[in-house]
Design goal:
109 residues, alpha+beta, 3-stranded antiparallel β-sheet, 56% helix, disordered N terminus
């Protein structure tokens, strides 16, 4: 199956869900988790992910912090805020409605 580079409106949902499962994850970890959980079907590219993280941070859905890893390298880690948890619930509801509608269309003769 071809890789889907543009997640077409679902990137926020995927990032928020990933951070709900793996708090304090850096950007590369988020990309890897999406790829892994989707069994290598979905891919969040850096050019889409980092602007989305910045936008979500400005919206108050996530917060970021610089940490120093054991290797001495610095990494910016992200975690959900209370607002992010609320947004995740809204995004999940929206996704359920959209996928149900698409499934209805696909079943229509």
């Amino acid at each position: 199956m071809a890789k889907i580079d543009s997640l077409q409106g679902s990137l926020d949902l995927l990032v928020l869900k990933t951070l709900s499962r793996r708090p304090r994850t850096h950007g590369y970890g988020i990309m890897a988790a999406i790829k892994e959980r989707s069994e290598d079907v979905l891919r969040a590219e850096e050019g889409s992910l980092y602007p989305a993280l910045h936008r979500m941070e400005e919206a108050g859905w996530i917060r970021a912090e610089w940490v120093t890893k054991n290797t001495g390298r610095r990494a910016r880690v992200y975690e959900l805020t209370a607002g992010g948890k609320k947004q995740l619930a809204q995004e999940e509801q929206r996704w359920s409605a959209v996928t149900a509608a698409v499934n209805r269309v696909l079943r229509t003769v």
